[in-house]
Amino acid sequence: MRRVAVIGIGDTEFGELWDESFRDIGIQAGLAAVADANISADKIDALYVGNMSAGRFIDQEHIGALIADYSGLARDHIPATRVEAAGASGGLALRQGFLAVASGLHDIVAVGGAEKMMDVSDIESAMIQSSATDQEWETILGATFPALHALIARRHMHEYGTTREQLADVAVKNHKNGSLNPKAQFQREITRETVLGSPLVSSPLRVFDCAPSSDGAAAVVLCPLEEAKKYTETPVEIIGTGQASDTLSLHHRKDICTMEATKVAAKRAFDMAHLTAKDVDLAEVHDNYTISEILAIEDLGFFKKGEGGKATEGGLTALNAEISVNTSGGLKARGDPIGATGLAQAVEIVTQLRGKADKRQVKDAEVGLAHNVGGTGATVVVHLFRRV
Amino acid sequence: MATAPRFWRENPSRYNLVGFKCNSCGRTYFPPRAICPVCHRKSVGKMEEVKLKGTGKVYSVTEVQDSLDELNLMKPYLVAIVEMDEGAKITGQVIDCDACDVTIGTPVRVSLRKLSEEGPSGIIHYGYKFVPVKEKAPEAQH
Lengths: 388, 142
Hints:
The complex is a heterodimer.
Chain A: E1 4-11, H1 22-36, E2 46-50, H2 54-57, H3 63-73, E3 80-83, H4 89-102, E4 109-116, H5 122-130, H6 145-160, H7 164-178, H8 192-196, E5 200-202, E6 205-206, E7 215-224, H9 225-228, E8 236-245, H10 260-273, E9 282-284, H11 290-299, H12 308-313, E10 324-325, H13 330-334, H14 338-353, E11 367-374, E12 379-387
Helix pairs in contact in A: 1-3, 4-14, 7-11
Chain B: H1 4-8, H2 11-16, E1 18-22, E2 28-29, E3 47-51, E4 55-64, E5 77-84, E6 89-94, E7 107-117, E8 124-132
Antiparallel strand pairs in B: 1-2, 1-3, 4-5, 4-7, 5-6, 7-8
């Protein structure tokens, strides 16, 4: 298997991008990544696009061909593949790109992720997002996507004494990091009181416990590590990739306070990289809800089970603390355009490992981890990156 | 709007809590599934229909304030994961009670109710919800 490097990154602002269409943002991120890699687009051998639900958000399927076409690659007839695993679509697309280069089948591969969520009403958007869970045995019975995460939060509080304030501290930290990221959807700091005073969505979770809906796109360009220096002085190697699945419904898990798929995907990635959680300097984790970040930092092995809330409250996950978690602002503040999120995590890690993260730079960052979740944990993808 | 058969074909489980028992290991699953995730191929042909008793305890619960379209008129409402006496866990609404009366561990029993309706003249969907089991009245102890 060949070693694989990221040689180019690109992303759009995340938020309510009324002026721009799905294809506009997809191309904008892709062009930025290609320019950053210092290649001409006709050098691209294959394209992977992470996208959850363009069919329902913009009535458009066949996204792989669409993005290849508007990238100006129709006459090159490159293979273009759309990858879907709900919220983990982006991370999974990155994994497909990695495998294509590692296998030797393709040399230069572009991987993008995009979602255009603002072209439908809030209620429609909520229904589309809940299609990541079991429609027949969860959604129809009244369990919304936030409700399922609220059930996790309630049980975690019951078993481990995690407090309402500790959940709020996740949002406060991620908004603080977002305030240092000029591409974040939310760039204002908030306080515990902001979170605790916001309207209830599904008890105990409130509006400020939830990541927003967003339009946005992100992309990377990959090539074999041995050729990476031809294109960039600062390649970043993907040293581990892990993917795992679990039951589609939350209620079928033995213990909803642990995302087994996170543990398994992380183990696979760490084993491949010959590293452990202790070696990680920064992590972008899937904080679609505040409780999700607490589960993630426990299941990835940064903290013991049940201690994620305390660690957050104690500031251990803040920028340049014990481990810097969600330096981009995370899904909470950077924004969560579903299919783009896994790629945006990769873009943030590469930016940090290049030492180009400006005010939110993690000091001496060498190893970064990206953790991308689909549904309530039925798909998890973990990637490990290292500065070359 | 979905067609009638999409809902109709699930009615045995939605109306009568019909799940499957694996006769290789004895575990009970709800809703039905063709293969036991523990026994794998050994379970093929040994999965048998079983009707759950309909009693269990709340494993986790939330009050939903911000619901999806069809359930808007009911909100706020309680949703719980209930651990049934047979061991299977099921998601459903908890009704006929105040939110403060339901916590982790509250005993509940199943009740057939209207789940939703597709507009004023559309299909009405029925299925299971849960109601808290009241403590026995004093006279019942004689």
